[in-house]
Amino acid sequence: MKQEMDETTGQEAMVVIEHKEDLHPQIVILDLHMSDDDRITPEEFRSRLNLGAARLLAISVWNDQETRTLAKSFGAVELLDKVNLGTDLIPAIKRLASSSPEQV
Predict the structure, then answer these.
(1) In 3D, which of 78, 65, 63, 73 has the Cα closest to residue 28?
(2) How confident is the model over 8-45, as pLDDT tens digits?
């Protein structure tokens, strides 16, 4: 069964935020359904992450409208289905890395 769809986990999200601040990546990949008891809202995640020029690529085992809406609320420019990560992840990273933010 799906976890609550309006929040992601606090501890893992904070790790993403810390690494983003240290590494200044072009692309940040976020699993929308990480499990933990500490929760962080999409708004709090976006404000703490401060993507700047980086783009957020979301992944999920679900690809329904609710999950697409959740991905957008986190600031994701694209949502990938985990079932297809083996074929879709590298092309998505290349596509996002080679395009400007306006092209995404």
Answers:
(1) 78
(2) 445 666 776 676 677 777 888 888 887 554 577 888 88
Q: Which domains does the chain have, with CATH numbers?
A: 8-103 (3.40.50.2300)
Q: Nearest CA to 72 among 42, 37, 98, 40? A: 42
Global pTM value: 0.73
